[in-house]
Amino acid sequence: MADMSLFPAYTPRQDEEERIQSMIERVQQDGTSRALLLYGEGGVGKSYLLRYLSDRLMLDNVIYVGPIDVDDAEYWSTTNLNHFVAEKLSQGQYFKNYKAFLVKMPEVEHEKMGHETVLAHMRKANRAFVIDYQNFIQHSRQTPVLIFDTVEAIRGTDTLTRLLLWVKKLPGTLFIIAGRPVDETVDPVVRELDEHPRLVYEEYVLREFSRTESMAYLKASSVMQKIEEDEQQRLALMSKGHPLWLALSISICDNMASLRKWISSRLIPVRPCGRIKTALYTMPICGGWWFLTGKAIFCMRLSSAWGLCGAESARDYGSR
């Protein structure tokens, strides 16, 4: 398992945090639900940003729900999603009508009940949830921020359609829907949101760290304290500010440091002979040595290929 003390807990994203705060404030002002579609390549930091929102944006009368990973089939059921949100918002205080329907569910699912009867009861339960949600918004004066992550897992499916129809029914809420960019001309999420009833939304692409942010990320790691400033700058340039590659840089440096320490602890000095002025060393050959050596070679090859592939774009990144 990786030593998490090597990596900074969170690198602030000032521009993105201000944009989200601005959208929350607009929802609070007019009570109109909005959606922020947050795009970003894998490893660029979408999930990290979303998981730290509640700590970074501690706003009055704002309650965060999620991130909800919609690649988890548990949340493909509207009933499960309703229950999760109700519990997070008020531990059921404002959702008594909805819970009353849930209590009756085992009776409705009795084997003598028909399929249509069960579906009708579930539709009534869903309507009760929406009414209770409206009462929550009106009487609690809280602004929920519902966060959905990894939406790429359900693009182009009926699950996405059901989720966005559910979203459009809920008032006074900011929805953050995060996922990787799409190859299609129009994102299916955008297509669904544009259909009647339309939900106001904004699109935003999360980029890599700037050079300053990259250096701050590296300096926050304990392993970087033993590495010269110019070497840190090279790592920042090679990574092009991509958080995942920065984390891999730290991991590689830590692996190399561990390997050097392991080797030095097992070097056995041999008595000099002849004209050889420097001491000779031998090393016991064992499975652990081959494992660590192979790992080091892999890391060095990876970093070498990484630097060659990104040399040109790294020069462009360095000018930012």
Provide the fold topology.
Layout: H1 14-30, E1 34-39, H2 46-51, H3 53-56, E2 62-69, H4 78-90, H5 96-108, H6 115-140, E3 143-149, H7 158-168, E4 174-179, H8 188-194, E5 200-205, H9 211-219, H10 229-239, H11 243-266, E6 268-270, E7 280-282, H12 287-309, H13 311-318
Parallel strand pairs: 1-4, 1-5, 2-3, 3-4
Antiparallel strand pairs: 6-7
Care to describe what's here?
By secondary structure, this protein is α/β, with parallel strands linked by helices. It folds into 2 domains: 8-205, Rossmann fold (3-Layer(aba) Sandwich), CATH 3.40.50.300; 211-318, no CATH class. The protein has 13 helices and 7 strands. It has helices spanning 14-30, 46-51, 53-56, 78-90, 96-108, 115-140, 158-168, 188-194, 211-219, 229-239, 243-266, 287-309, 311-318, and strands at 34-39, 62-69, 143-149, 174-179, 200-205, 268-270, 280-282. Strands 2-3-4-1-5 form a 5-stranded parallel β-sheet. Helix 4 (78-90) runs parallel beside helix 6, helix 9 (211-219) packs across helix 10 and helix 11 runs antiparallel to helix 12. The longest helix is centred in the middle third of the chain and has 26 residues, at 115-140.
Features:
320 residues; alpha/beta; Rossmann fold; 2 domains; five-stranded parallel beta sheet; two-stranded antiparallel sheet; 13 helices; elongated
Element pattern in H and E = HEHHEHHHEHEHEHHHEEHH
CATH superfamily of the largest domain: P-loop containing nucleotide triphosphate hydrolases
Content-based structural category? alpha/beta
| Tally of distinct domains | 2
| Number of E-state strands | 7
Instruction: Return the CATH class of the largest domain.
Output: Alpha Beta
What is the radius of gyration?
A: 27 Å
Known CATH architecture of the largest domain: 3-Layer(aba) Sandwich
Query: What does the largest sheet look like?
Result: 5 strands, parallel
Q: Tell me the overall shape.
A: elongated
Query: Distance N terminus to C terminus?
Result: 35 Å
